[in-house]
C-alpha cells in the first residue's frame, strides 16, 4: 500500500514504483487515495473533492490529484506488470478533505479548513445525514467504474470521532452500496465489529483482538501487523524518516515472521495475502518512498509467496545482499542497512 493522501506522488513516480514492485512479484497495489490531508482521485459528480480537497498536503507541501484519465493510466500500467490496483476511500473517519470541500456534508453545514497536520481520529462524515449516502453512492459508482480489479477499500480505521453504534450502522449501510457497485469490500480491521457481506476482507494492522474476531466470524483477512509490515516504521532510532509508534522494524524483523502464527486459530485458507503499508506523513519524494521500501519489501513478498518451512534469515540475507548492485544500477535510494553483507 502507498499512502498518496498525506503526501501526493504523481503518475511518473507511481510508474517507477510499480516497476520496482513488479521486480519482486508484488501483484496488488493498494492506493490510499483519501484522508484528512487530501482527496486525490477526481470524482466528476463531486468536483470540489479534488478542486478544493486536493490542493495541499502535510506541512503545506504541494498537493495534487489524479484525474480519472490519469487513474486509468496508472491502472493500465500496473496491469501491464500484472499488478491489480485496489483503491481506498477512507470512511467514515479520515475525511477532513471531503468535509472541507462540501459544507453540506458536515452535520452543522460548516466546512472545516483544509488540514496540513498529522493527527488522526478527529474527523467523521455526518452519519445521520441522507446526503452522506448519496455522496457515497456517487463516489463508489465512479470509483468502481474506473477500477477493473475486484476490490474497493472503504477504510474504516480510527473513526474515533464517530460513536461506536453510528460507526457500525454506517459500515452496515455502506456494505450493500459497495456490493451494488459490483465489487468486494475491503477495510481496515475495525470493520470486523460490523455484520459484513460474506466475501469481505479485513486488514489486521494493530489490534490482534480484531483479527481473533475475524477468525470467529470467518472473515477473510490481509495480514499486515504494523510491528512487522508497516514500511513507514523506522529501521532503528537513527532513521531520519518514518514513525515509530509500533516500534522500529529492522530488515530482519520485517522478514522473520509468519502470518499464520500472528493470530491464534488462524487458518492459512483464511489469509487472502500479506501487505506492506507505506504511510507518507514523513515522505515527500520517491527517493523517500524507496528508502523506506527497500530493502524490507522483498522479504515481505517472499513471505507472501513461499512456505514458512523454507525461509531462514541467515540464507535470505545473502540473497538480499545480491540485490544491492541492482538497486545501485537503477538509482534506487535504498537504505544500506549495516547488518546486511551488501555485495559491492
Ligand atoms: N495508523 C493510521 C494511518 C497512518 C499510520 C501511520 C492505519 C490503518 C497509523 N491507520 O494504519 O492513517 O497514520 O503509521
General description of the model:
This protein is an alpha/beta fold and 344 residues long. The protein has one domain (2-330): TIM Barrel, CATH 3.20.20.80. It has helices at 11-23, 48-51, 68-80, 96-101, 130-145, 164-180, 208-216, 226-229, 251-255, 286-293, 297-305, 313-321, 324-330, and strands spanning 2-3, 28-32, 34-35, 38-39, 84-91, 151-155, 184-188, 201-204, 220-223, 271-274. The strands form 2 sheets. It has an 8-stranded parallel sheet. The chain has a two-stranded antiparallel sheet with strand order 3-4. Helix 1 packs parallel to helix 3 (68-80). Residues 120, 157-158, 188, 205, 230, 232, 243, 279 line the site of ligand IFG.
> What's the order of the H and E elements?
EHEEEHHEHHEHEEHEHHEHHHH
Reported for the largest beta sheet, the result is: 8 strands, parallel
CATH superfamily placement: Glycosidases
Q: What is the first-to-last residue Cα distance?
A: 30 Å
Shape estimate: globular
Summarize model confidence as the mean pLDDT. 98
Total number of strands:
10
Text of the CATH class: Alpha Beta
> What's the Cα radius of gyration?
19 Å
Bound molecules: ligand IFG
Tell me the layout of helices and strands.
Elements: E1 2-3, H1 11-23, E2 28-32, E3 34-35, E4 38-39, H2 48-51, H3 68-80, E5 84-91, H4 96-101, H5 130-145, E6 151-155, H6 164-180, E7 184-188, E8 201-204, H7 208-216, E9 220-223, H8 226-229, H9 251-255, E10 271-274, H10 286-293, H11 297-305, H12 313-321, H13 324-330
Parallel strand pairs: 1-2, 2-5, 5-6, 6-7, 7-8, 8-9, 9-10
Antiparallel strand pairs: 3-4
Helix pairs in contact: 1-3
Amino acid at each position: 500500500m502507498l499512502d498518496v493522501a498525506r503526501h501526493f506522488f504523481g503518475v511518473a513516480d507511481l510508474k517507477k514504483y510499480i516497476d520496482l514492485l513488479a521486480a519482486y512479484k508484488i501483484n496488488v497495489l493498494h492506493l490510499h487515495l483519501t484522508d484528512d490531508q487530501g482527496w486525490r482521485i477526481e470524482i466528476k459528480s463531486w468536483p470540489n473533492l479534488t478542486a478544493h480537497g486536493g490542493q495541499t498536503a502535510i506541512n503545506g507541501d504541494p498537493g495534487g490529484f489524479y484525474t480519472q484519465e490519469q487513474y486509468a493510466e496508472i491502472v493500465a500500467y500496473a496491469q501491464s506488470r500484472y499488478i491489480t490496483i485496489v483503491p481506498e476511500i477512507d470512511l467514515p473517519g479520515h475525511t477532513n478533505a471531503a468535509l472541507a470541500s462540501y459544507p453540506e456534508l458536515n452535520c452543522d453545514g460548516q466546512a472545516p479548513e483544509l488540514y496540513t497536520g498529522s493527527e488522526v481520529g478527529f474527523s467523521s462524515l455526518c452519519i445521520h445525514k441522507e446526503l452522506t449516502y448519496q455522496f457515497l453512492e456517487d463516489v463508489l459508482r465512479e470509483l468502481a467504474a474506473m477500477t477493473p480489479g475486484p476490490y474497493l477499500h472503504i477504510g474504516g480505521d480510527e473513526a474515533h470521532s464517530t460513536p461506536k453504534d453510528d460507526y457500525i450502522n454506517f459500515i452496515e449501510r455502506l456494505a450493500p452500496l459497495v456490493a451494488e457497485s459490483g465489487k468486494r469490500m475491503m477495510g481496515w480491521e475495525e470493520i470486523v465489529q460490523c455484520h459484513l457481506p460474506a466475501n469481505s476482507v479485513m486488514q489486521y494492522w494493530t489490534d490482534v483482538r480484531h483479527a481473533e474476531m475475524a477468525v470467529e466470524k470467518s472473515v477473510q483477512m490481509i495480514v499486515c501487523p504494523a510491528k512487522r509490515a508497516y514500511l513507514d516504521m523506522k529501521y532503528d532510532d537513527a532513521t531520519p524518516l518514518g514513525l515509530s509508534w509500533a516500534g522500529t522494524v529492522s530488515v530482519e524483523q520485517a522478514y522473520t515472521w509468519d502470518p499464520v502464527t500472528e493470530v491464534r486459530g488462524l487458518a492459512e485458507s483464511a489469509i487472502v495475502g500479506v501487505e506492506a503499508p507505506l504511510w507518507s506523513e514523513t515522505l515527500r519524494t520517491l527517493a523517500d518512498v524507496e528508502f523506506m521500501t527497500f530493502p524490507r519489501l522483498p522479504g515481505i513478498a517472499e513471505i507472501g509467496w513461499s512456505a514458512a518451512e523454507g525461509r531462514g534469515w541467515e540464507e535470505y540475507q545473502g540473497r538480499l545482499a545480491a540485490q544491492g548492485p541492482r538497486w545501485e544500477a537503477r538509482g534506487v535510494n535504498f537504505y544500506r542497512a549495516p547488518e546486511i553483507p551488501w555485495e559491492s
